Amino acid sequence: MIALLIAIALAAQAQGRESLGVFDSWGAFRDAAPARCFAIARPVRGEGGAFASVANWPRSGARNQLYVHLSRPRDPRAKVTLAIGERRFELIAGPSDAWAPDARTDIAIVTAMRSGRSMSVESLARGGGAFADTYALKGAATAIDAAAMGCARRSG
Asked: Are 41 and 25 in contact (CB under 8 A)?
């Protein structure tokens, strides 16, 4: 997993993305345009181009916004649920992605991520069948903090 994140970091630099560090299975990055900083990870279980990220957008003042790209397109009628320990959060969902419904839920999710061991994003795939993308949370808090600091340095 670390080798994968290092490869992502090197590819990102070629795209004008600055690596802020790799922390276990999470990486932190800063983009100049549009200005944003984010922590990101791929699932330990899940397929496709799935990832989870927590981003800061300095120009709009948005902080710690969760965004998840699902491993499969979901059934349009299916809910997307994020689970961390005993906590469950229903997310707003697009065809292949999901996000928190509001800033208060973003705060609750990031707080749970800081103390959790793993999180899963669950739904039903288009055409049937349940699926879950599972993420290790070791290193997530440090990557989230590095992303927040990266944007604070840039804007301050």
From this structure: yes
Are 8 and 41 in contact by the 8 Å Cβ rule? The answer is no
DSSP string, 68-134: EE-SSPBPTT--EEEEETTEEEEEEE-SSEEE-SSHHHHHHHHHHHHH-SEEEEEEEBTTS-EEEEE
Instruction: Write out the H or E segment, with its range, that includes residue 2.
Output: helix 2-14
Strands 62-69 and 51-57: antiparallel
Cβ burial of 10 (10 Å; 0-12, 13-18, 19+) is: exposed
Bridge partners of residue 28, in order along the sequence: 21, 39
151 and 36 Cβ atoms separated by less than 8 Å: yes
Rounded to whole angstroms, how far apart are CA atoms 67 and 97?
7
pLDDT in tens, the chain (156 residues): 444 444 555 455 445 678 999 999 999 999 887 889 999 999 997 667 899 999 999 888 889 999 999 999 999 999 999 999 999 999 999 999 999 999 999 999 999 999 999 999 999 999 889 999 999 999 999 999 999 998 876 544
Spatial contact of 68 and 133, defined as CB atoms under 8 Å apart: yes
The dihedral built from the CA positions of residue 145, 28, 42 and 80, taken in this order, carries a sign that is positive
